[in-house]
Specification:
- The chain is α/β, with parallel strands linked by helices.
- Strands 3-2-1-15-8-9-10-14 form an 8-stranded mixed β-sheet. The chain has a two-stranded parallel sheet with strand order 4-13. Strands 5-6 form a two-stranded antiparallel sheet.
- A hairpin with a 4-residue loop joins strand 2 and strand 3.
């Protein structure tokens, strides 16, 4: 656009020079030249302004996608979609992401029941929209110090402190995916199976900037419980004593995480391959939203379409949400990290 503007301006200068360059030229022609330059300047200014708006303003929501907007089952509320699209389009414009799909989560919705589908996969290129379940951060209850734990159904507490196990709303871009060995379990066919759980690292900005430090990302909501060690010296995962962890596979898709975005095993198998190419994940609510809703509840103001948003069912259950900033929680959590370190645990042994 810059070169086009310069060429048009040069053309205007050359034309005005031909009209006004000779001494003693016709005053009428000189006046018309001035008017011409003024009109051309207005046109260029309007063109530039329109171009700037086109870059800064997200494109209009496609008609097919509007059919999925609302607060009903499997729908996404307007504010969450608008922010998710704006984040995605901004990162696409900056050449940060090329993935045709982007993701969003509404952590104000309940995790169970008909409205449990609160994580969204949106692929505008092929006009596809999918809603699924996802877990929220469990928080912690530090006896005698502070309690910022969350219930299983609705999240009341949010924050970005290290070791807080809280969900942090805001902007993320997906990064590398890595798989880690968790142990052996007996599958539906009653055979020994290996649990290798994939983890997608998120990188954040602003309030979510410490996502990598907190090991915040996405993974399947599966874990091994009741771990014991069994002798399996030939296993590539055996420790120095020839032992491997064995447990019972538990799916906690409707439960709580350590602050990550967790999906059911079946959903994770579909989502994680889509993240081989980086894309955006927007999680609602952000700190400003939490504070606005808390203030509205405190002032007993009614919620309208123009005011702060929170899912009505969860708001009724939690009373009012709270954001625990890093500055607020870090000093408390740091005291527990400074406790004398326990001796390193010995490498587990097992029976043959």
């Amino acid at each position: 656009m810059g070169k086009a503007v310069r060429s048009i301006s040069s053309l205007a200068t050359r034309r005005s020079g031909r009209l006004n360059g000779s001494r003693g030229g016709d005053p009428l022609r000189a006046g018309l030249a001035v008017l011409g330059r003024f009109a051309l300047g207005v046109t260029i200014a309007a063109w530039l302004a329109a171009g700037a708006l086109a870059v800064e303003q997200p494109s209009e929501t496609p008609a097919w996608l509007k059919n999925h907007v609302g607060d009903g089952e499997g729908q996404i509320v307007p504010v969450v979609l608008q922010r998710a699209r704006a984040l995605y389009l901004r990162k696409v414009a900056a050449a940060v992401v090329k993935n045709p799909c982007y993701f969003a989560m509404d952590a104000t919705r309940p995790s169970d029941g008909g409205l449990g589908k609160r994580f969204y996969e949106i692929c505008e290129a092929d006009r596809s929209f999918r809603a699924m379940s996802a877990g929220h951060g469990s928080g912690r209850n530090i006896k005698g110090a502070v309690n910022f734990a969350n219930g299983k159904e609705c999240a009341k507490n949010f924050g970005n402190a290290l070791d807080s196990n809280l969900t942090t709303g805001g902007a993320y871009v997906t990064a590398e995916t890595k798989a880690s060995f968790k142990g052996y379990f007996r599958n539906a066919a009653k055979r020994e199976a290996i649990l290798m759980r994939s983890f997608v690292q998120f990188d954040g900005e602003g309030e979510t900037a410490n996502a990598r430090e907190r090991a915040i990302g996405g993974h399947a909501a599966i874990v091994l419980k009741g771990i014991h060690y069994r002798s399996m010296a030939r296993s590539p995962y055996a420790n120095v004593n020839g032992c491997v962890p064995v447990g019972t596979l538990v799916d906690y898709a409707s439960g709580r995480s350590n602050g990550c975005t967790s999906w059911s095993r079946s959903d994770a198998e579909q989502i994680i391959p889509l993240l081989d190419e980086p894309t955006t994940v927007y999680i609602y609510p952000e700190a400003q939203d939490i504070k606005a809703v808390a203030q509205a509840v405190s002032a007993r103001r009614s919620f309208s379409s123009n005011g702060p948003y929170w899912n009505a069912l969860c708001l009724k259950e939690i009373g009012a949400p709270k954001f625990w900033s890093n500055e607020m929680l870090e000093p408390i959590l740091a005291r527990y990290r400074r406790d004398p370190e326990r001796p390193a645990s010995p490498v587990p042994t097992c029976r043959p």
